[in-house]
Amino acid sequence: xxxxxxxxxxxxxxxxxxxxxxxxxxxxxxxxxxxxxxxxxxxxxxxxxxxxxxxxxxxxxxxxxxxxxxxxxxxxxxxxxxxxxxxxxxxxxxxxxxxxxxxxxxxxxxxxxxxxxxxxxxxxxxxxxxxxxxxxxxxxxxxxxxxxxxxxxxxxxxxxxxxxxxxxxxxxxxxxxxxxxxxxxxxxxxxxxxxxxxxxxxxxxxxxxxxxxxxxxxxxxxxxxxxxxxxxxxxx
Amino acid sequence: xxxxxxxxxxxxxxxxxxxxxxxxxxxxxxxxxxxxxxxxxxxxxxxxxxxxxxxxxxxxxxxxxxxxxxxxxxxxxxxxxxxxxxxxxxxxxxxxxxxxxxxxxxxxxxxxxxxxxxxxxxxxxxxxxxxxxxxxxxxxxxxxxxxxxxxxxxxxxxxxxxxxxxxxxxxxxxxxxxxxxxxxxxxxxxxxxxxxxxxxxxxxxxxxxxxxxxxxxxxxxxxxxxxxxxxxxxxxxxxxxxxxxxxxxxxxxxxxxxxxxxxxxxxxxxxx
Lengths: 236, 272
Hints:
The complex is a heterodimer.
Chain A: H1 3-20, E1 29-33, E2 41-45, E3 50-54, E4 60-64, E5 70-76, E6 79-85, E7 92-96, E8 102-105, E9 108-123, E10 127-140, E11 165-170, E12 173-179, E13 184-189, E14 193-199, E15 205-210, E16 217-219
Chain B: H1 4-41, H2 50-72, H3 79-86, H4 92-143, H5 171-194, H6 199-221, H7 225-229, H8 240-271
Helix pairs in contact in B: 1-4, 2-4, 2-5, 4-8, 5-6, 5-8
C-alpha cells in the first residue's frame, strides 16, 4: 500500500474540511450606555461599518471586545459625537431614542422599527435607511471638488469611480429627499414611498429595484424647489 | 539510518551534480529581479520604500521557494536519471534530510542574497533621490512659499534597506511565514515525487484544484477559511477547540507533507 498519498490525502482532506466548516463563535461585545438627554444629533466618525437603530428604551453602543478597538463618545451641545476604530470583524451598533433625528456617519446603515417623523442622514459614503418615516432626508456630504464638478482637477484625490450609494432599503416613507451631485439613490421598494425628490446632479442616478410605477420619483434640477413638506401624520 | 560520512559524501555528490542547475535557477531569479527593478524605477521612488521592498521580497520567496523545492527531485521524473539517483549509496533518510536542508535552509539564504544584490543598490538610489527631491522642494518653497503647499520633509525611515524580520509584529508573524513556506515547499516536493510525468504542471494543477475546492466548500457550508488561514495574526476570539485545532493543523500539515516526501522517496526506491 502506498502510504504517502494516503497521508497527503488525509492531510488535505482535514485542511479542506477545517476551512470549509470554519465558523466564528459569537464574539463577546461590550455594551456602553449613552447619555442622550437633549441629544438631537448623533455623529459617528468611523471608517468601519456602523449600524444605528432608532428604538425605544435605553441608548447604548455595542462593539466587539478587542484590544484593537478604540471607541470614545463625547457631548457637544445637542450633538453626541462617537469616534470609533473597530476591529474589522463586527460593526459598531448604536441604539438611540426617536428624539434623535439627525445622523452623521462616514458610512453605515440606520433603521427603525418605530414610526418616526423626520430623519436626516448626512454621509460622504454609502449609507442606507430602513424603516417607516414621515420625511427622510439623505445628504451626500462628500467633497464635490474631488469629483471635478467645480471645474478643479484634483488628480489622485478624484474618487469619480467610487460614487457613494444612498439606499432606501424599505419602510413606508411619506417623502424622501436626496441631495447629492454624484451618488446613486437606490430605492429598494419604491411603491411604499409617497414621493421622492432627488437632487442628484449630472453625475448621479436613481436606481429602482421593484416598483409598479415611477410617477412618485422626481429627479430635480439644481436650484429647483420641491413643494413644502406636508405635515400629515403617519398612519398608525 | 544516518551515517555522517556517507551523508557528507552524498551532499558533495549532489552539489557536484546539481550546482549548475541551482545556479541557473538563481540567475533566472536575479534576471527577473533586475527586469522588475527597471520597470519599477520608471514608476516612482516609492516602489523602493522599505514596505515595498518587503512586499517584493516575500512575493518572490513564496513564489520561487515551491518552484525550487519542486525541482530538487527533478531527476525522478526521468526513469534513467531516477534509477541513478535512487541507487546512490545513501539511505532514504539521508537523501530526504539533504533535501530538507537544501530547500528549507540553503535556498532561503541564497534567495535572500540574490534579492539584496538587486534591492540594495535600488534602495540606496531611491534613498538618495528621495532626499534630493525633498531638499529641492524645500528650497523652492523657501524661495516661493505658497500657503498650504508646504512640501513634506524627507523621512529617512521610509527608505531604509529592508530586513526580512523588519515588518514582523512578533513571533506569530515569524511562525506564520515559516509554516506557509514549509507547507508550500513540502507540497511542491511531494508533487515532484508523486507525479512521474510532467510533475510541475500536475502539482500546479493540484494546487489550483485545492484552492477551488476550499472556495466551493466554504461557499457551500458558509465557512470562513480566513479564520484558519489568518489564525496567527487574528484579533478575533475563537472557541477553545478552534484554538487547539487550528495551530495543531498549521503545524501538522507541513509536517505531514515532509513526511509524505520521505515515504514517497522510500516507495520510489522500492518500486523503481
